Amino acid sequence: MIPQAPVPSRRIPARLAIATVAILLAGFALVYLIHVLLLSREGSPFALLIAIGWTVACAVATSLGSRHRLAGLLLTALALAATAWHWEWLAGHVDAVYLIQHAGSHAVLGIWFGGSLIASRNGTGLALISRFATRVHGSLPPPILRYTVQVTAVWTGYFLSMALASCALFAFGSLQAWSTLANLVTLPLTVGIFIGEYLVRLRLHPDFEHVSIIEGVRAFMK
Known about the structure:
Blueprint: H1 14-38, H2 44-64, H3 69-85, H4 87-91, H5 94-122, H6 128-137, H7 142-172, H8 175-204, H9 213-221
Helix pairs in contact: 1-2, 1-8, 2-3, 2-5, 5-7, 6-7, 7-8
């Protein structure tokens, strides 16, 4: 009897799991701090510094990973200079800055995911989750392909709904209610959707080779 080759282990390295948990805890602590600062007039400058620092870090990271690195870094520097020039006005409208970040980022993600759904239906491309899955598994069997399209639709609905809810609550609700949604609800809800989708996938497609949530996030970041 010919011995079978061992199946490669897909266990998550302990360090990666610990780092992921640490990042999530730091994220929860940061958004709670932002929530407290937004509700305090004295905390507005610190909240603005956090918003600018986060935006600049994302812009620099995106620029360094882009083909147009110098152009991206130059635009980031110009935006930072414009921020410094209008600092006093921004410090008086920190809530609007966070609204643009929160609602704007969700709207962009919703359009990105939704656009990929349209391309999938037109036969001109793959739904976004389907695209991520092919990076890990290669070609997908039809049932899994349909499932990834459905998951893309779920994320599209979530992102667009969150953008609309953010704008509506900011316009017609209190700052405390909006900040609760943006800073205290969004991150746990997003993590919950990741976990819920993973559990549903295990139940609906138990025989398919599953990757962990962490590996799925890594595929998204590539």
